[in-house]
Design a protein that fits this description.
The chain is of the alpha/beta class. The protein folds into three domains: 39-372, Glycoside hydrolase, family 3, N-terminal domain (TIM Barrel, Alpha-Beta Barrel); 387-585, Glycoside hydrolase family 3 C-terminal domain (Rossmann fold, 3-Layer(aba) Sandwich), CATH 3.40.50.1700; 640-754, Immunoglobulin-like, CATH 2.60.40.10. The termini are far apart. The protein binds alpha-D-glucopyranose.
């Protein structure tokens, strides 16, 4: 009671203290007034972000740094904190900022709410495979409600990087290889996090990251150099960031990599010319963890002072954990190396987002212990996570319809460390999830069926605890579990094998040079196959893997990613047919790592070649060019038949449009969902054009025997790209339209774009 009265008095005081001569509706007047009261140091303080005293998500400065930070906090030299967990901790730090600093400017608290806060949904690569935009937005909404209930006001998501190389561990964090789908999902996630009213206590500011081209590291090695040409940047990398901005995203995060020899954190081109200039972004840019200071090892900045100068001049508004703005900017301004107006601009942008969040009205609005208790981990949120998880599962193979399994009367042997692992399914970037809280496959199968299930681990995939900072300690030698597993498998009606990656084997810093099943899992799979061929392979992984052997030998393969808190229940619902799998891959699965980077919207080259038999063509001598499973691929327990594609005409100009229509019939026995995909090929242009590009999709649901017509409208915007004239425009000529169930669709109809 006392604390409530105190909070009330405090809120009135703050509201009064921040009252200005015009009403709060005029954000600019409010901020101008506040800025006019601030010293240079206090403005610089807003640009400084410190890690909280919970887990760090990057390299930390030397020990004992905490004391100075509390001093900085009290002196108004901190504008934001990250990785502060829980209302109590947020409240304590906010109270210092509001009551003990000269101007009482509230902090903004950020956290990586990437796929859930405490209730964990599938990793974003998994969610994107649902192609269910509403469900993806809802998932972000749930994550935001939990994060806000925990006192947070800002998430470092969505990660909207486009990427094509599964060696890069952060493919788990985005929406796959395609720009069109990535843009649609970027907007949906921003809307989910930010809602319709950012000042509402259940909404949080989102952050489009990592700007830009972080997904194109050479050799798939994290943080590595990204050298891409301007047209790939504009046509493939920028659009999801622009979609996030158009959806109202309040913050951007720049990236660790150099883009064409300049670190993104120090890139005026990216941050001032494009983002704040051409695109008119009015939020703020936060650096990535320590990325300002990292311009020194990049060989771009001489020292910390130079790095701070480069970063602020390039448009990096907030310094995450390099502590260089608070130590260097004051002198840089005094020496005239940095204009004070740049400091004013950065501070204004940061104060603007705090204003939009309502933090000046009530800095403690996110600090409600009742709400924290009631919202976080609620049954409703768990059900939302289960729904999202089911929709993210992709059926890659189901020969002789081994799936769905009967719910009773079957002898099932379940094999694999991951089958009874309640931690790995949480994946990397698992927010504030408690460890070991995911439903396992064993628990799910027992909960949803009445079969006798024999579990045998078969092999330790890894040993000991795992976390964000450490390499997973893989087992490469101990096969003592094989014998028991083979005996358990021998007389089973069906063997369900759950293999893949431990939850921290993908994500930041998790680059791999091989894409096979880690450890001894492949050997175990082949040994079990020798005693029983009726295997359902359930994959748990954060990236495309090399499944060439499995695809050749294993009758049924289910891609389940790291599905989050409800993993085992979702997998069981699909295995038992409660939910007919509807997912479609958003990243190509290579036949082997040598094909990486591999993606569906490739350029044909001048010597495309039909097979490796044609030596002097752009083919490999040892494997075909095509991926094992293409972008957009996913099966169902039912069948969908596509009619002939129809176009409403064979030519159009830039002012009118053409419609492309097709009928889809569910010719199988199960109700099911299908993602109908529309691709367009531009046969020639002022730049070499890709073989096809996704330009539309529709998620439909059909009962057995039902037929539905799907129609796509093709207008000039579908044919526009960033051309050699450095303009977004269409170019007249021949186009072909493909509509199908994945990017490998061949049937098409053509039309001409005329002036
Ligand atoms: C990390 C990541 C970034 C994350 C930030 C804060 O290094 O690159 O995506 O948001 O630091 O945790």
């Amino acid at each position: 009671m006392k604390s409530t009265i105190l909070k009330l008095i405090l809120s009135v005081f703050i509201a009064f203290n921040f009252s200005c001569d015009s009403n709060h509706s005029d954000k600019e007047v409010f901020i101008d007034d506040l800025l006019s009261k601030m010293t240079l140091d206090e403005k610089i303080g807003q640009m400084n972000q410190y890690n909280g005293f919970w887990d760090a998500t990057g390299p930390l400065p030397n020990a004992g740094y905490e004391k100075n930070r509390y001093d900085d906090l009290r002196n108004g030299m901190v504008g934001s904190m990250l990785n502060v967990i829980g209302v109590e901790n947020v409240y304590a730090l906010q109270k210092i900022a509001v009551e003990e600093t000269r101007l009482g400017i509230p902090l903004i608290f950020g956290f990586d709410v990437i796929h859930g806060y405490k209730t964990i949904s599938p990793i974003p690569l998994g969610e994107s495979a649902s192609w269910d935009i509403k469900a993806i937005e809802k998932s972000a909404r749930v994550a935001a409600e939990e994060a806000a209930a925990a006192g947070l006001n800002w998430t470092f998501a969505p990660m909207v990087d486009i990427y094509r190389d599964a060696r890069w561990g952060r493919v788990m964090e985005g929406a796959g290889e395609d720009t069109y789908l990535g843009s649609v999902i970027a907007a949906a996630r921003v809307k989910g996090f930010q809602g319709s009213d950012l000042s509402d206590f259940s909404t949080i500011a989102a952050c489009a990251k990592h700007f830009a081209a972080y997904g194109f590291p050479e050799a798939g090695r994290d943080y590595n150099t990204a050298d891409i040409n301007k047209y790939t940047l504009y046509n493939n990398v920028f659009p999801p960031f622009k979609a996030a901005l158009d959806a109202g995203v309040k913050t951007f995060m720049n990236s660790f990599n150099t883009l064409n020899e300049i670190p993104a954190t120090g890139s005026k081109f990216l941050q001032r010319e494009i983002l704040k200039g051409k695109w008119g972004f009015d939020g703020f840019v936060v650096s990535d963890w320590g990325s300002i200071g990292e311009m020194i090892p990049h060989g771009y900045a001489e020292d910390g002072n130079h790095a701070a100068e480069l970063a602020i001049n390039a448009g990096s508004d907030m310094d995450m954990e390099s502590s260089l703005y608070v130590t260097e900017l004051q002198s840089l301004v005094k020496e005239g190396k940095v204009e004070e107006i740049l400091i004013d601009d950065a501070a204004r942008r940061i104060l603007g987002v705090k204003y939009d969040l309502g933090l000046f009205e009530n800095p403690f609005k996110y600090c409600d212990k009742e709400r924290e208790k009631n919202v976080i981990g609620s049954k409703e949120n768990q059900l939302a996570a289960l729904d999202m998880a089911k929709k993210s599962i992709v059926l890659l193979k189901n020969n002789n319809q081994l799936l769905p399994l009967k719910k009773k009367g079957q002898k099932i042997t379940l094999i694999g460390h991951l089958a009874n692992d309640n931690n790995s399914p949480l994946g990397n970037w698992r927010g504030a999830a408690d460890s070991n809280t995911a439903v396992t496959v064993l628990e799910g199968l027992e909960a949803y069926g009445e079969n006798s299930i024999t579990y045998s681990k078969g092999v330790d995939l890894y040993y000991g605890e795992t976390n964000f900072h450490s390499r997973v300690n893989l087992n490469h030698t101990d096969k003592t579990g094989f014998k028991e597993a083979k005996i358990a498998a021998k007389f089973a009606d069906v063997v369900v094998m759950v293999l893949g990656e431990e939850g921290f084997q993908s994500g930041e810093g998790r680059s791999r040079t091989e894409l096979g099943l880690p450890g001894l899992q492949q050997e175990l799979l082949e040994e079990i196959y020798k005693v029983n061929k009726n295997i359902v392979l359930v994959l748990m992984n954060g990236r495309p893997l090399n499944l060439t052997w499995a695809d050749k030998n294993i009758p049924t393969i289910l891609e389940t990613w790291h599905l989050g808190s409800q993993s085992g229940n979702a997998i069981a619902e699909v295995i038992y047919g409660n939910y007919n799998p509807s997912g479609k891959l958003t990243m190509s699965f290579p036949r082997n790592v040598g094909q990486s980077p591999i993606y569906y919207n490739y350029k044909k080259t001048g010597r495309p070649g039909a097979s490796s038999a044609e030596v002097t063509t752009s083919t490999y001598a040892d494997v075909e060019n095509s991926p094992l499973y293409p972008f957009g691929y996913g099966l169902s327990y039912t069948n969908f038949d596509y009619s002939e594609l129809k176009l409403s005409g064979d030519k159009m100009n830039r002012k009118n449009m053409i419609s492309a229509s097709i009928n889809i019939t569910n010719s199988g026995d199960f109700k099911g969902k299908e993602v109908v995909q529309m691709y367009i090929r531009d046969h020639s242009g002022s730049l070499a054009r890709p073989v096809k590009e996704l330009k539309g999709f529709e998620l439909i649901e059909l009962n057995p025997g039902e037929t539905k017509e799907v129609v796509f409208q093709i207008d000039n915007s579908s044919l526009t790209y960033f051309t050699v004239n450095d303009k977004w425009e269409s170019e007249i000529g021949k186009f072909s339209v493909y509509i199908g169930s994945n990017s490998d669709v061949q049937k098409n109809k053509s039309f001409n774009l005329t002036n």
